[in-house]
Structure to design on (540 residues):
């Protein structure tokens, strides 16, 4: 009985993780995430799955973030009948996040179809609907950490705390084969450790094969203890107050918002920052905060900070869109937390549109920003950006405080890999941009792991897995969005042009514009000359 491992997301990028494990008896997925970032990546969400959804026996879910869970309703629509195994906290968060994602899909498609009708274009369908999301929740089955579960014939799994967010886990998968049990450990997203409400990442040792996230694989960054982190945040808040205008914090609705709110609450109570009205302007974050109130309180703490947040008169929950719109009438110092964390969707975009041009306003970006996102353009110093069809000058103070990331840095990732040893087979590096993937590969080889035992899968890359041996069984990869019937060189051109369009629309006056255009011309010339012999777009 052969075992095949394939990667259908977060291969060469940090979103959309989905790994498929197939034996002669069963097929399981580890995660089924949504692609985020550039238009060419997001368009993959509309492509058919490169496998038969109805043949999948189970999904093993590492955590609730949409880039790991967001295509589960699409999978269900395509014929998957379950179960979806996850921790109880992950199931509770998905019960908030998946319906929200379905609602966003329907809302965005309604707006797009109104524009398409005016332009004489055919209507489009959402990836999935709110109803689909609720139907998907019926497929969830919960498990506890450290408990072995038979998830499909010949396949068992154990969830280990990943320390990334509430309910997050690394998943150890044990497959019965003719040569014995083959063990694979999927890291999921790994936390940095040393956090208030989340345990440090853990996992078993002596696995056969390791699949590791590489988000920060090329970077070493400080991970301050909670007291130091709060002092750094306090300084940013005092500086924003001194600027005279509002402070806008784009924050992920789940985990980041709650951690920031708890820190702000502690700082206000201690007199470390000026008092302010604090607006949580995200229905999803409000619902997630309730999940944290029930599940996110550590017994070692003196009191539940999330209970304090709920009763605070300073904190206002804004569920109604009209209440969100009313913030435009406020002047002076106040704090707004709004999703999404990378500024790609949600209410934060309208706040950016009305605040970025103001010199007295501050935008504090507290975490990782993927390539191609509006948040990334702001952090990199764009002077103008395009939001909701309008060019907006960037005059506000743009501050980055990358101390709230839920991801381990390069040193933390390498330490986690060392603790899982000895690894008898292959270490697969996924969930990273090229810099992170290559950086972690170089670090691991420098620590003694042979280069031929480290693999960086391509999208839809396939591997035959044995107890220790791995061989590549790649077939043709998926083509870029909208190019399924075109030759590969057309596919490469389409991907390049889509990415360029996104970059120039988001930052029309970026000082790197001319250099970007020159690099694009060179890349297109290379593709045209080679006519796509490699089947992949060159870097732009």
């Amino acid at each position: 009985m052969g075992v095949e491992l394939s990667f259908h997301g977060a291969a060469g990028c940090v979103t959309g993780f989905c790994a498929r494990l197939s034996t002669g008896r069963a097929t399981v997925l580890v995660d089924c995430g949504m692609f985020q970032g550039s238009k060419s990546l997001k368009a993959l969400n509309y492509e058919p799955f490169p496998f038969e959804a109805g043949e999948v026996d189970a999904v093993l879910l590492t955590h609730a973030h949409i880039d790991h869970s967001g295509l589960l309703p699409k999978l269900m629509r395509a014929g998957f009948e379950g179960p979806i195994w996850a921790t109880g906290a992950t199931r509770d968060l998905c019960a908030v996040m998946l319906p929200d994602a379905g609602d966003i899909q329907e809302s965005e498609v309604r707006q797009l179809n109104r524009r398409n009708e005016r332009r004489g274009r055919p209507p489009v369908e959402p990836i999935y609907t709110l109803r689909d999301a609720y139907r998907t929740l019926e497929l969830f089955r919960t498990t506890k950490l450290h408990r072995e579960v038979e998830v499909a014939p010949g396949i068992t799994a154990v969830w280990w705390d990943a320390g990334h967010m509430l309910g997050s886990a690394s998943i150890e998968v044990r497959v019965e084969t003719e040569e014995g049990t083959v063990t694979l450990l999927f890291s999921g997203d790994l936390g940095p450790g040393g956090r208030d409400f989340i345990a440090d990442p853990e996992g078993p040792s002596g696995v056969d094969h390791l699949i590791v996230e590489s988000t920060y694989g090329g970077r070493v960054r400080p991970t301050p203890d909670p007291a130091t982190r709060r002092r750094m945040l306090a300084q940013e808040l005092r500086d924003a107050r001194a600027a005279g205008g509002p402070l806008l914090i784009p924050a992920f609705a789940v985990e980041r918002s709650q951690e920031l709110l708890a820190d702000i609450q502690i700082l206000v109570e201690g007199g470390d920052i000026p008092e302010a009205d604090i607006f949580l302007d995200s229905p999803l974050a409000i619902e997630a905060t309730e999940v944290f109130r029930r599940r996110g309180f550590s017994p070692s703490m003196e009191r539940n900070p999330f209970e304090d947040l709920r009763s605070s008169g300073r904190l206002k929950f804004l569920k109604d869109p009209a209440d969100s719109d009313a913030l435009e009438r406020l002047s002076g110092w106040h704090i707004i937390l709004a999703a999404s964390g990378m500024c790609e969707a949600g209410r934060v975009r309208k706040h950016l549109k009305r605040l970025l041009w103001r010199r007295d306003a501050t935008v504090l970006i507290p975490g990782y920003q993927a390539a191609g996102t509006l948040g990334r353009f702001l952090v990199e110093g764009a002077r103008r950006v395009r939001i909701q069809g309008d060019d907006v000058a960037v005059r506000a103070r743009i501050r980055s405080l990358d101390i709230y990331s839920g991801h381990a840095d390069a040193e933390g990732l390498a330490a986690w890999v060392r603790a899982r040893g000895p690894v008898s087979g292959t270490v697969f590096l996924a969930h990273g941009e090229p810099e992170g993937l290559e950086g972690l590969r170089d670090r691991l080889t420098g620590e003694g792991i042979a280069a031929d035992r480290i693999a960086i899968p391509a999208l839809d890359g396939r591997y035959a897995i044995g107890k220790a041996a791995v061989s590549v069984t790649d077939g043709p990869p998926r083509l870029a969005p909208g190019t399924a019937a075109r030759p590969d060189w057309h596919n490469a051109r389409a991907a390049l042009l889509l990415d360029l369009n996104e970059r120039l629309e988001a930052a029309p006056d970026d000082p790197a514009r001319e250099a970007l255009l020159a690099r694009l011309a060179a890349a297109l010339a290379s593709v045209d000359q080679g006519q796509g012999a490699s089947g992949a777009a060159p870097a732009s």
